[in-house]
Amino acid sequence: DFLQEAQLDRVGCFQYSPVAGAAARPLVLLPQPERLQGVSSGPCGEPLNFQWNRCYYQVARCTAAERIATAWWQDAGSIHRDYYRVETRSGARFWLFRDRDDVWFLHGLFE
Prior knowledge:
Layout: H1 2-7, E1 10-11, E2 28-35, E3 37-41, E4 47-52, E5 55-62, E6 65-69, E7 80-88, E8 93-99, E9 104-110
Antiparallel strand pairs: 1-6, 2-9, 3-4, 4-5, 5-7, 6-7, 7-8, 8-9
């Protein structure tokens, strides 16, 4: 089924990289994604640190990117996001994404 395959599409560093448990979504979704400041990215595009709500976070670990995009037969390219589940060194867990313009946003928080 092409929709199931699209849901499982992951973007790794130069190769297909499925993420165990990638269907997990945060319990707290923000009403609107909030733009992040000061994001540094690693060699594969993953976030290394970011600023949100006047706090600085260092990423301890994160999943490979999960691409969520509008299908080709829908509004051409209206959504194209690479989502990451991240855990910071302080233990906080967030759902971040980078859009096609390389702008980072926070979309949810895991409890």
